[in-house]
Amino acid sequence: MNAIAPAVARSPKDYASDQEVRWCPGCGDYAILKAVQKTLADLNAATANTVFVSGIGCSSRFPYYLSTYGFHTIHGRAPAVATGVKLANPALDVWIVTGDGDGLSIGGNHMLHLLRRDLDVQVLLFNNEIYGLTKGQYSPTSRVGTRSPSSPGGSTERPVSPALFALGAGARFVARAVDVQQKPLVDVLKRAHAHPGTAFVEIYQNCIVYNDDVFAGFTDKAVAADNQIHVAHGQPLRFGRDGGRGLVLDTRSLRLTAVTLGDGGAAVADLLVHDETNPVLATMLAAMQPPDLPVALGVLYCDPAVATGMAAGTSAAAPPAFGSAELGERINALLHRGETWTVAPASGVNGGEARR
Amino acid sequence: MPSSPFRRKKLVAPMTSSAAALPPSAAASPRQALESAVVRFAGDSGDGIQLTGLRFAAATALAGNDLATFPDFPAEIRAPAGTTYGVSAFQINFGARAIKTSGDRPDVLVALNPAALKVELPTLKRGGIVIVDAGAFAERDLKRAGYAASPLADGSLDGYRLLAIDISRLTLEAVRPCGVSQHEALRCRNFWALGLVYWMFGRDRAPTQAWIGRRFADEPRLAQANATALDAGHVYGETGEVAPAFSVDAAPLAPGQYRVITGGEALALGLLTGAHLAGRPLVFASYPITPASPVLHAMSGWRAHGVTTLQAEDEIAAACAAIGASYAGAIGVTSSSGPGIALKSEAIGLAVTAELPLIVLDTQRAGPSTGMPTKTEQSDLNLALFGRHGEAPAVVLAARSPADAFDVAIEAVRLATRYMTPVYVLSDGYIANAAQPWAIPDVAALPPFPAHIRTDPQGYQPFARDAETLARDWAVPGTPGLEHRLGGLEKDATAGTISYDPANHQRMTELRAAKIARIADEIPAQVPDAGPERGRLAVVGWGSTWGPISRAVALLHQRGHGDVAHIHLRHLSPLPRNLGRLLEGFARTLVIEMNSGQLLQLIRGTYLSPAVGYQKVAGQPLTIEEVEAVLLQHWGADR
Ligand code: SF4
Question: Do the beta carbons of residue A225 and residue A241 sit within 8 Å?
Answer without folding.
Answer: yes
